[in-house]
Amino acid sequence: MASCTLFLEQYVESTNTLPSELQRILATIRFLDEKSNALRVAVAAQTEALVAMPVQGQRSPEEEQRFKELSSQVSSMQQQLLQFAEEKVQLGQQANDLLQMHNEELEKVGAQAPWLRQGRAGRRRAIWPDPT
Question: Quick one: pLDDT at residue 126?
Answer without folding.
Answer: 43
